[in-house]
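Thread: Newbie trying to understand structure tokens

Hi all, I'm a second-year student working on a class project, and my supervisor (Dr. K.) asked me to get a predicted structure for one chain before our next meeting. I've only ever worked with sequences, so writing a 3D structure as a token string is new to me. If someone could post the tokens and maybe explain what I'm looking at, I'd be very grateful. Here's the chain:
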Amino acid sequence: MLAEVRRPAAAFVLVLVAVTVLCLGRGRVMAQTPESGLLCESDQHIAVQSFMDSEPERIRVSETWLFVEQSMPRPPYPAEYGVAIYDLSDPLNPQRRSKWLFPDNREELIALHVSGEVAYLLMEPAFGNSTILVVLDLSPPDRARLVSRTELPTPHSHLTHSSIAGLVNGHLIVQNSRIEVGIVDVRDPSQPVQRESWDGRIYLSALVGDVAYAVDFRTITALDVSDPLNPVEIGSIEAPRQLAYGQAAVSPDGTVGYFPGLEWAVGNGHMLVLDIADPSLMRVVDRINTGRTPIFMRTQDRLVLYAPRGPDEPRVYRWVAYDTSDPLRPEKIGVKFVGFRSDKGFNTHPIEGTPYLLHYSSSGMSILDTSVWPGDPIAQELTDIPLAGPVRGMAKQTARLFVSAEPDQLLAIDAREVARPVVTASLSARAGGLVAEPGRLVLASEDGVTVFDTSHPGFPVRRGTIPLPPGATAVESFDLEGTLVVAALREAGLWTIDISDPDRPVTRSRILTDSDGLGPIAVALIEDQAYVSTRTFDGRHYTLGGWLVNLSEPDSPVVNSVPGVGGTYHFHRVGTRWLWNGGVYLDVSDPRNPQIIGVATHRLGDHRAVPDYAYLHVLGFNQIVTFDTRSPSYVQRKETFWQEELEIGEDAVGVRVGRHLYAAGDGGRLYRINLSDCPSCPADMDADGVLTVFDWLAFQTAFERGLPAADFDGNGRHTLTDYLAFLDAFNAGCP
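---
Reply by user tm_fold:
Sure, no problem. This is what the structure looks like when written as tokens:
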């Protein structure tokens, strides 16, 4: 069969010539790159960092206004310091409206409230305890106009470290960090006047019209603040457990409040759902456990909680989304990993009256559409697939999936019907890594290397086994090309096996390493060239390296070093041209002369990854991290999917079948992850983002060598219909 594949019929060649001429006539067909931030993400995620003059120091959002405190360069003059002001009334198209420069560069913006086109800013100097109220007119198009600047009296101002709860009848209600409330009369914005503070310790958790809700331990009190200088109690209620001094969220109609419950013991933070339709007759509707103390964000019919991931990771945050179309019965619809909280303060803000959140992190500022997020669960456990234990290997042949699980289970799974994958065969075979090519499956375990015939993929047939060579205890990594298998043995060198007779695999060569070193730890076989990652240990330090082993004569391999490559446990192929090892990106279009194209700022380390068009989905620790690799010299980390129930770790394995990723790990559970939001362009064979004649040449090479990449109709064979399917994909272009 392979001999026939390597000599394509004359008709195939004629088709190739014809379509190649067509390609050249068309010129270069550019892959249309989607708008920045829309790659491989289930939610709308628009990057707005490009609108910034420089890295923000801190941000504040009020209504549909964004204030960004930052240094603003103006070469050749010294940089200015102040706030850049953006209009977010169209959240997907933020417009810079104006700026305002700080008279004193040592001041900080601590609180913001916007009403119409008047902005109230509380500023705090770097030294001293005073607070400065700045009132700005935002109507001028280029530069905000200063209306007034007032230093609030007393050296120990009650407004220090403050937030603005709201504006009621011309009075700012200001909450400070000492659980006190101050009032500033701004009926004449040009002459603000600080009034008397309210008596006692009061924390305002929410303000709905002229009704404020104050929290004290377990008590919630509703206050009529229509006269801000003389608040009047309307009603109160005792909560079942202690509440947190944090901002509550309120349903759009103002009838339901969601109050944060304090996590006073590990994992018992909660959300208190309160009916406030009649503030004098408040009632508790529900108390929902959230694990950590939640921070609320309200966006139309979504309630989003922002909370640390776990008690041991206080800076690792996640979003938890609730559907509140029925405000009294919030329904949890998804969890999403956020990343690390910014050193510059709380970094996610709702944009009032819209479904959008503005999120600021180390990778920039972005806007997220919560109306389409989180959608379907990221990972669905396939409970109908009976795995015996931790999964050690996974491979595919068209839409057939092979899974090796401890201690001695090998499953063949028909995944053609996505909703109902079916186990078609279960064999007894020591668990280990798997590699598949059309017609064959190779398993490497502690028993050795075993070949299976998969001419009928649903029913693999065991053929022959070759035991591990003397001194070897396990296979760290291996790869298959045609009838040649190359394996990196644990502390025992590099092993080359000929499986042209699958019933009697034979050793062709072995490269030994020093007994005190680790030697080869990862291998990728491209044509007759083996790329090998090595790691040696001298008793104190590890030394990383890489080999390029010429196997054109498998009995006499020739070893050459590859500078800049090596040290991690996995290689990853992207398209037919690129090869990853760690964070190093190689162009292997000429396998004998690899070129380092780029080095990623985010190294993959020792995690496995699943290639998907020009993306890598890196598996590990309850999450899947996606990298956009279409520009090899600038690899971008696009998205992190985190799901608490996704029990995979650093040793997870996975494969892509169609638009789904299948993954499993030590937990002994198989998951299916939907990749339908990730752009796919199968005709871009070299994954460079451009459709050219070189993709045709790459397709021809893959077809002649019988590689899965050329099986475009997915029937497990290489025929004329693959050429026709490739032509259709090429003409369709890229997303």
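A couple of things are worth pointing out once you decode it. The two ends are 35 Å apart (CA to CA). DSSP finds four helices and 58 strands in the chain. Feel free to ask follow-ups in this thread.
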